[in-house]
Amino acid sequence: MFFKLSFMKSFSQAEIQQMDRIFRLNLINSSTGYKSANLIVSQSKSGIHNVAIFSSITHLGSDPALIGFIVRPTVVPRNTYQNIHEVGYFTVNHITAEQIQSAHHSSAAYPEEISEFDQTDLVPEFKNNLPIPFVSKSPVQLYCKYLNEYPIAVNNTIMMVASIEHIFIAETLLHEDGWIRLDQAKVVAINGLDGYALPQIIDRFAYARPHKPTESILK
Which of 2, 100, 164, 171 could bridge to 196 as Cys pair (CB 3.0-4.6 Å)? Predict the structure, then answer.
């Protein structure tokens, strides 16, 4: 069944500002489309592991390998932000369909002395003598090092920038050219703040060049 485009509802900026807070949160967060779904694991100086779901992690560059993500205003305690500053390293873990309930629960505001590993079905996994654990059964795992941060003055959020120091990937997902086929591991995306979706690859195309037909390379 194909979606049939119906009458388009519109909202002006003035109307957006006057909306109920929850309606506005849902509308704006889902209007930008599907986002990545990742769990960041960080560690406090006292050794407590914090697990937090993020939908803002994005690729910043491949050489060097960099990622960025947004931290909300630090007017209240942000355990992930504090831990990364204290220790300097963290892990990024892709979320699968089987993990969404526990992953979503990691957004609950537990105090810093409580680990979300102890409050969910998520299990820590240590690898290669690295001090920060990964999330077990996550098919793509990144070990990252904090590099810098950039305040965003218009809404008091912070963009944190980190380097990718180590990558672990389920071997069956990795293609010869380095592409990772995430849908085969049921890696989810986030729609808005609380909707989880399973993306499905439709096709994959060769590098686009002027005056040449688009070529499918999906295998």
Answer: 100
User: How far is Cα of residue 75 from the mean position of the Cα atoms in its chain?
Assistant: 22
Quick check: helix, strand or coil at residue 176? coil
Distances (CA, A) of 187 to 29, 38, 52, 99, 182: 20, 10, 17, 10, 6
Q: Which pLDDT score, from 0 to 100, does residue 203 have?
A: 96
Q: How far is CA 134 from CA 150, 214, 215, in A?
A: 26, 39, 37
What's the order of all strands across the beta sheet hosting 65-71? 49-54, 38-43, 89-94, 140-152, 157-169, 65-71, 58-62
pLDDT in tens, 5-54: 778 899 999 999 999 999 999 999 999 999 999 999 999 999 999 999 99
Q: Is 193 exposed, middle or buried (0-12, 13-18, 19+ CB in 10 A)?
A: middle
Q: Whole-angstrom Cα distance, residue 107 to residue 190?
A: 14
Query: Token match 């686009």: residue?
Result: 208
List, in sequence order, every residue forming a beta bridge with 140; answer none if it has no partner. Answer: 169
Q: Please answer whether residues 186 and 196 qualify as being in contact, where contact means their C-beta atoms are separated by less than 8 angstroms.
A: no
Alpha carbon distance 43, 126 (integer Å): 13
DSSP output for 34-101: -EE-EEEEEE-TT-PEEEEEES--EEEEETTEEEEEEE--TTS--HHHHHHHHH-EEEEEEPBGGGHH
The closest of 164, 175, 178 to 130, measured between CA atoms, is 164
CB atoms within 10 A of CB 3: 5
Encoded tokens for 83: 């831990």
